[in-house]
User: What shape does this take?
Amino acid sequence: MPTHLGTVAAIRRHPVKSMLGEEITAADVSPGGVTGDRAWALIDRETGKVASAKNPRLWRSLLTLSATLHDGAVRIVLPGGKTVHSTDADIDDVLSAFLGRPVTLTSTPPAAATLDRAVPEEVLAAGVTAEVEAEEITLGLGAPPGGFVDFAPVHLIGTATLAAIAAASPRGTVEPVRYRPNLIIETTGAAYGENGWTGRELAIGDEVILRVLAPTPRCAIPTLEHGELPRDPAALRVPAAHNRVEPVEGLGLRACAGVYADVVRSGRVRQDDGVTLL
Assistant: This one.
């Protein structure tokens, strides 16, 4: 039987991969996900790989940059307030100088785009500046071509899960932006209840239907500084202690929080829309 799970508490998009994003009150959702989300990324010109803060030693400073969409272009704000745009002729030079590595901003993913994902437990143990083991990840295996999502087009997390992580954290809080979701669902059930949505469909409002594919394995990103937010190792350690599951067969146990979904029916999602498990 259909089950009412809650409502859409917040909608977020991240126009440039691994940069801070923006909260919006409504969004169009298509097979590629929330319009404008992970539509751009930086390519490391030395390796050809996508720049991602999943490899904190090289790219954690991406999380000090914020990206927003304006008339089809991306506006990026650097620490200190300097603003650049994707249409600027010197955008790559500015970002390369800031990051200390040659990069190219693009909305066209390379063929078989990959990134390096540092083993998160090793980052916790050795620190963000340490050179630790990393696995190479192929992007978008559960998504249509054209974007820079890690796996599937839409990422969701429930407030019950966030509340449980906060309650177990020494800081007594956890900021939802650390987990970089598209949809934050106001839920009243058990923590990590999203695991039970796997394999089922979600109706969002009157239009959108999503199919939940898998729990979301967490990397080192939630533990890193996000703009003015401090480092928070508990953002990973708590899920690792309370929700180690196998997201997909053969991947092994991973610390998970939230779920990935693909889009069964496109439409518009609005804040306060109801969410029903079909």
Notes: The first strand starts at residue 3 and ends at 13. The longest helix spans residues 159-168. The chain has one domain: 3-277. The mean pLDDT is 96.
